[in-house]
């Protein structure tokens, strides 16, 4: 895990979102500087993941709009800042993504008091089946990014090895087939040998 340099909170006013990378990363223009910003405390599906395109489109509505940037972490090892963004009406973009079901509260990193409020909003979005919560088994992006030897789907209860054409990153991950079997999944007869 990359180390983060924590600084006291700083505010940048009058910035413009000039590029949306995905549902939780943008570039903002601050005077003459173009700065990569990762939205604090949330994690949206990857673009190629279920719900990723929707999260991107939701955030894109603020493209070329003025925002206030409340910096939480200044320049991580990934060359970006971690921040909370507010539009000109005072709406928190991070919160809007959670409230509308396009993001998870990233509990590993969300450590400020606002995170408790976001967790409540996430529960409401889930109860209302908004956005990613409209899917039966939404896969958190931190699970999607892991490389597992085997993946299974809830619907079929069949697991595939990572070289099988039926292997999908959307599935539940296992690193050994015995664990998959123990959890009630059965192997694909074409790709997993006993």
Describe the structure.
This protein is an alpha+beta fold and 194 residues long. The chain has 2 domains: 129 residues, OB fold (Dihydrolipoamide Acetyltransferase, E2P); 42 residues, no CATH class. Helix content is 21%, strand content 31%. The strands form 3 sheets. It has a 5-stranded mixed β-barrel with strand order 1-2-3-6-5. A 4-stranded mixed sheet has the order 10-8-9-11. The longest helix has 14 residues. The chain is elongated, with a radius of gyration of 19 Å. 31% of the residues are buried. The N terminus is likely disordered.
Q: Care to give the gist of this entry?
A:
By secondary structure, the chain is of the alpha+beta class.
Largest sheet: 5 strands, mixed, barrel
Structural class of the helix and strand makeup?
A: alpha+beta
Poorly predicted regions: 1-7
Strand content: 25-35%
What order do the helices and strands come in, and which of them pair?
Elements: E1 6-22, E2 25-30, E3 33-39, E4 42-43, H1 52-60, E5 66-73, E6 81-87, H2 93-99, E7 104-105, H3 114-127, H4 141-144, E8 150-152, E9 158-161, E10 172-174, H5 177-182, E11 186-187
Parallel strand pairs: 3-6, 9-11
Antiparallel strand pairs: 1-2, 1-5, 2-3, 4-7, 5-6, 8-9, 8-10
């Amino acid at each position: 895990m990359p180390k983060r340099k924590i600084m006291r909170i700083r505010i940048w006013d009058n910035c413009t979102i000039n590029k949306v990378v995905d549902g939780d990363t943008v570039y903002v223009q601050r005077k003459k500087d173009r700065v990569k910003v990762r939205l604090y405390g949330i994690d949206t599906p990857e673009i190629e993941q279920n719900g990723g395109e929707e999260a991107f489109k939701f955030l894109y509505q603020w493209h070329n709009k003025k925002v206030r940037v409340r910096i939480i972490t200044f320049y991580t090892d990934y060359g970006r800042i971690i921040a909370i963004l507010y539009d000109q009406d005072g709406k928190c973009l991070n919160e809007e993504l959670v409230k509308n079901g396009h993001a998870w509260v990233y509990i590993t990193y969300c450590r400020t008091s606002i995170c408790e409020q976001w967790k409540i909003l996430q529960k409401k979005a889930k109860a209302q089946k908004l956005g990613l919560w409209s899917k039966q088994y939404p896969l958190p992006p931190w699970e999607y990014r892991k490389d597992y030897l085997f993946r299974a789907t809830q619907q079929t209860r069949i697991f595939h090895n990572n070289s099988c054409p039926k292997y999908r990153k959307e599935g539940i991950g296992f690193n050994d087939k015995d664990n998959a079997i123990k959890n009630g999944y059965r192997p694909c007869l074409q790709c997993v040998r006993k």
